Amino acid sequence: MILEARDVHKRFETPAGPIDVLRGVELAVDRGETVAVVGESGSGKSTLLSLLAGLDAPSRGTIRVDGGDLGTMSERELAHYRARALGIVFQQFHLMSGLTALENVSLPLELQGADDATARARDALAQVGLADRAGHLPARLSGGECQRVALARALVVEPALLLADEPSGSLDAKTGAAVDRLLFDLVERRGTALVLVTHSDRLAEACDRCLRLEGGRLV
User: Fold this and answer.
1) What residues have CB less than 8 Å from 161, skipping those under 6 apart?
2) Whole-structure pTM over 0.85, yes or no?
3) Are 94 and 153 in contact (CB under 8 A)?
4) What Å distances lie between residue 144 and 37, 123, 141, 148, CA to CA?
5) Nearest CA among 126, 125, 128, 108 for reference residue 117
6) Which residues contact 160 (CB under 8 A, 6 or more apart)?
7) I want to staple 198 with a disulfide (CB 3.0 to 4.6 A). Which of 129, 152, 203, 214 is the partner?
8) Count of other CB atoms within 10 angstroms of residue 41
9) 3-state class of 53 per DSSP?
10) What residues have CB less than 8 Å from 138, skipping those under 6 apart?
């Protein structure tokens, strides 16, 4: 098992009073498994993904990834976890505008101090079909190309777990479908576990399992 969340709660304090977004989430994901999380807007899908990434902490409950308890990790340890064991793909790409495609992909490897960061980044770009776009800045790339760069950046560290938040949600249907096919092809070839937040029935059906967030719980 690569991921286990037990009795996870998340409460937000607001001027109007507390809001309980997650109410006892239970989730277990095996290595190499693909899991879709669906639900209405505002149901807490992105909040759950943020907790699994260690970007926020649950109000109660435990989240373990690859045997490590995120709740006991220091900020430095969490950063190390995100750099080495985790890949994240967002809907809006989040590429560094002043860096080329190659530099964006090599960045997480350089932060690790990898000696072969550039070579591995070139190989990752080739795997997403962008070897000839390595020197281009994000502004000179299409939306689909930017998302492929983001996918290469997320997978270049060979993470055990990939979290994806509506990875093709901002793309047109044809481009989005191509990115989705590439995503599943890459995680299957690498044996990477995938937790995917989506509104797309097509994407959800492509996963091994589909879970729905209702009333703050996964069903």
Assistant:
1) 2, 3, 29, 65, 66, 85, 86, 87, 192, 193, 194, 195
2) yes
3) no
4) 23, 19, 8, 6
5) 108
6) 2, 31, 65, 66, 85, 86, 192, 193
7) 203
8) 7
9) coil
10) 93, 95, 96, 97, 99, 101, 104, 146, 149
Dig out the tokens for 89 from the structure. 């793909």
Query: What is d(CA 132, CA 167) in angstroms, rounded to the nearest whole number?
Result: 23
Q: Which amino acid is at 188?
A: E
87-136 residue pLDDT tens: 999 878 889 999 999 999 999 999 888 999 999 999 999 999 999 999 99
Helices (H), the chain: 45-52, 75-84, 101-112, 117-127, 143-155, 173-190, 201-206
**pLDDT at 196 exceeding the cut of 90:** yes
Report helix, strand and coil shares of the chain as percent, to nearest 5.
40, 25, 35
